[in-house]
Each structure stands twice: as C-alpha cells, then as structure tokens.
Amino acid sequence: MKLQESHCWEVASLMLDCLLGVPCCFPLDNVINIICSVIKSFSCCAPKISWRLKSDKWFSMLFARGFHNLHESDGHLADLFVTLLGHPEPEQRFVVLQHLGRLVGQDMHGEAVLQSNTIIYKLLSPDLVLSVPESFLSLVVSSTWDQVVLLASSDSLLPLKIRALALLVAYMPYAGRQQLQSFLAAADSVLHVLGKVTHPTCEGPLLRLSLALSAGACLYSPAEDISLISQDIWRNIETIGLSRTEGKLGGLEKNACEVLCRLRNEGDEAKENLKEVLSTNSTKQVDPDFGSTRESILQVLANLTSVQSCFDMFSKKIDQEAMELEEAEMELEILQKEHAVQESSKDSKEDRNNPWITASMKEDSRLQEIKDRIRSLEKSKLQEDIVLRRQKKVLIRRTSQKYLEEAAIREEELRA
C-alpha cells in the first residue's frame, strides 16, 4: 500500500506477484484484506492499462490458493467484485464477470455457456468448477446481484450484456427470494427482448438467455411471486410458444414457453412439468458431425487468411521495390542532365546510349546497376569539384605571389 501511495506501481505489482506465488503451505489468511485492497487500488488507479488488467491474473491466483474457502475473506472479496462490476472500463467488467462465472460453474473461456443445453443444465444441476462453500456463493450472489442485473439490462457493449445474462442464469439456484422478487418485478426492463410490446423478432443469445432467465426465476420462486412478471412478457412468451416457425430457437425454447404459460395458471403443479421438459432437452446430444464441420470451416478460413497475408506482404514488397527503382531512375536522369551540361554533346549521347540501361536487362539487377551508376556519377562530380577547388587555390596563390612581387618593386622604386 505504501508503494502504491508513492506511485511505485511496478514494484508493488512484482511484490504482489511474489506474495501470491509463495507455496500454499505458507498461509496468507491474515493479509487477505490488504491483498483485496491492493487489487482494487491497482484496478482503479494504476496509470497503465496493463497494470490495471493484472486483476485477471491475481483473481486466478487467489482462487488457486483457495481464498474463497476462508470465512475471513468473504466480505473483502465480495466488495472487490462489486467495485469491479461498476468499473468504467469494459475490460475490468469482463474480467470480473468471467471469474464470477467460474465460481458458479461456468466455462471461463469457452462459448458453450451460450448454448441452449448448457444454459438449461446450469439451471437444473449446478456444477461447480471450484470447491466453493454455499455460504460464500450466497454472499457473492446477494452482494453482486444488483450490479450484474444492471450490466445485463443497460451495459453499452453487447458481449458484456450477454455475459451478464449468462451469469444471472447461473446465479438462479443460489439467489434468495428477495433477489428473485426484484428480478421478476423488473423483468420487462432487464429482459428487453421479451419486454417488447410487439412480437420479439430477434433470435439468438439474447432471446435464448432471456427465456432461460424467465424459466429459472419461475422455477426457483414461489407461485405467488410469479404474478410479479409483467403482462408484456407473458404475451410474448405465449407468442413464442404458439409460433409455427422454430427458427434458431428450436423445440426446447418453444416447449419451455408452453410450460411457462401453464405454470402461470396452474402454479407449483406445473413446475415438475417444467423440470421434465428442461431435463429432457438438456440431455440431447449435439450432432458430432456439426462440430467437425465447423472446425474444418474455421481451419479453411484461417488458412485463407494466412495466404492473403502472404500475398499482401509480397505485394507490398514488390511495390516498394518498384518505387525504389523509379526513384533511382529519376535521380539518375537528373544527374545525367547535370553531367551533360559540363560535357560535350557527344559524350552526353554516349552516356545516354550506354549499354547498361537496356530493355533486355533482368529486373533484379537493374536497380543495383542504376545505384552503381549514380555513385559513379556522384564520384566523378566530386572529383571534378576537388580539381576545381585545387585550381582555384593555385590561382589564388599565384595572384598573391604576383601582388607581393609588384609591391616589392614599387617599394624599391620609391626608395631610389
């Protein structure tokens, strides 16, 4: 902390790396509050973005050491999460969303978190990547719920909004009734896709996640709280359930919408049906041929990109050589004209007709020969300048000598 106050950011960063990198047999329980404060200070105040984004590395090191299992660290880590979720830089918000997702069992780097089967599986069977106490998860969810909902509803960047919606889906099994009630009451402002008065025409991650959130909130809320959902959302859920064209949503979302409409009218009795629909569809396997085809397409695109880069590089090199050749020819022409003023027309004609500039020459040696010719002309001109300077010095010396001799003769005549 003192190093940060003295603006010794790099030294403080190295010290924190060393501190978190010590073997796990050396406990750091008593300094977890200081570590969280240092990470918060780095993320908010460090002058370089590379230093501010070290929070990603330090979060990984914290969880690797098992700090989330310490009761003393609960409040400090939760406060750090809340601070970074409200950070003005999107990179910081993305980092903390990733690590919060990892705490509740999301894939930290993969895109599978946005697939229908994965989303529904997280609703029914939370699978934690880390061994995290449920008390800590409950504290983190309750502390960060409002900030995550705010990002899901109003973040300016679509990837962050999608990541926040996916995190809310994973939050559902650990959310308290107060959080679920607040979500149900404000669902039309959080789930903009379902909150539209008209039929939601957009399909994809936003609509899929919005439906998953609606299903999760209804699944984990008492029947009396489901009435908090606005009529606009129910109307659009009914429209999706009755639609004939499946589009990108498929049968899973349509069946879920139908059961949600039943859940609205029948209450807790329809929850088992909702679980059955979700569990049946979440166990379906994705066509393995699709994955191999996708990988092949991506590989072909990567190869095409590499080939295009090579073409661009060679084209740039050829253009550069052509430009150098053109500039050299222009410089040679200027030097030849200057040289022609000093030589006879015959010599100039011989220079212009020299056999070293012929159409039959190879392109790779032409530039070098032109440069050699330019150096030769420059050297010749320099030699001529040296000769002229020597002749001028000799002339000045002779003039001075003649002047001294004449002055001596006049002096002798005056004496006589």
UniProtKB/TrEMBL annotation:
Biased composition (Basic and acidic residues): 339-353
Domain of life: Eukaryota
Region (Disordered): 339-360
Signal peptide: 1-21
Keywords: Signal
PANTHER family: GALACTOSE-BINDING DOMAIN-CONTAINING PROTEIN (PTHR35833:SF1), GALACTOSE-BINDING DOMAIN-LIKE, ARMADILLO-TYPE FOLD PROTEIN-RELATED (PTHR35833)
The name this protein goes by in its record: Uncharacterized protein
Species, as recorded: Salix udensis
